[in-house]
Amino acid sequence: MEPQPTPSPPQGDSKRALLEARESAIQDSAKRRAISVRESRGSKKSRLLPFAFIASVALGLYALASQPAWLVTPPPPPESPVIVEASLRVAMWQEALYVERYHSEKGRLPLDLAEAGAPDVAGVSYHQVSEDSYLITGSNGEVDLVLRSEESFDDFLGESLKTLAKRVGS
């Protein structure tokens, strides 16, 4: 007997199978392309990251070493001698207020400004002269002043508060 030929699928089924095979091949090809694109992007990013890090560190070190004008605030201009003196007068007056308050509360002068509760101000010092009198001396650059306990605070301050108020307002 002769072998029987394999029955061929109906005409519509073979076209459908070919169409499905073609669509499957196209989808596989698209997936492979998408994967290769993702991989190539990832490798570019991974090569760019160390370069960006090194560039950032180099820029930071440059800015730290050179301190360019666009990064560092310039120091303020020096104060005028009038402002320096007015500031010193106000600081000494404030220290004297602490001493006077202590004297009125305790009935005696403090041994030092710290005992009176006054903050430590550079260039300002307190000296007890007698049981009821004292001196507060101040030095700020070229200005040296003395405030005596017998002296009127208004006379000592003069126009200092107005001078400082004009400076702050301008």
**How many β-strand runs?**
3
Describe the largest sheet. Answer: 3 strands, antiparallel
Strand content: 5-15%
Give the SSE string: HHHEEEHH
Strand line-up across the major sheet: 1-2-3
**Count of DSSP H/I helices:** 5
- The best one-word shape is rod-shaped
- C-alpha Rg, in Å? 44 Å
CA-to-CA gap between the ends?
120 Å
Task: Give the uncertain stretches in residue-range form.
Answer: none
Number of domains: 2
Helix and strand content put the structural class at mainly alpha
What is the average per-residue confidence, as pLDDT, rounded to a whole number?
Answer: 84
Helix content: 55-70%
Concise summary:
The chain is mostly helical and 170 residues long.
Describe, in plain words, how this protein is organized in 3D.
The chain has 170 residues and is mainly alpha-helical. The protein folds into two domains: 12-72; 81-169. Helices cover 59% and strands 11% of the residues. The protein contains five helices and three strands; from the N terminus they run αααβββαα. It has helices at 11-66, 81-106, 113-116, 153-157, 160-169; strands at residues 124-128, 134-140, 143-148. A three-stranded antiparallel β-sheet has the order 1-2-3, with helices on one face. α2 (81-106) crosses α5. The model has no long low-confidence stretch (mean pLDDT 84).
